[in-house]
């Protein structure tokens, strides 16, 4: 039976198309739901991702009593993450659906893999280092980031890291997938 994954994308460039990541995850027996920051929809093709997953890319909160909730996740993968998204998540600034959902999943103890990708100039900012340290201290959160690497990790490396991070199992997520206004 497929495991459920929330794939959070933001406005960061990826070395390979995110659609290739989704295909690889599906091949590793993940049922993928894609959520995006508003800027992420300009960097990653929502129509192609919706076609691959069989459901729309979710960008906004759903209103109470409308639409179907997301299925409960076995893991969360936030990849690729911008400088801004990393700093927002680390500081609990849940001002949008995708970032807010990542923050909420921490509280449920859902295994989460964060894969930042930003320019070295931004990565050298002291706020970024503090944010990475904060995120690495969160239980069941793994940060896959090498500041010395010229490129982000390959999708194969990301998938392997996700499998390792999710091996601990799901936290106390509600069985009905009723995460606030997630949807």
UniProtKB/TrEMBL annotation:
This is Flavoprotein. Gene3D superfamilies: Flavin prenyltransferase-like. Pfam families: Flavoprotein. It comes from the Bacteria. Residues 4-135 form the Flavoprotein domain.
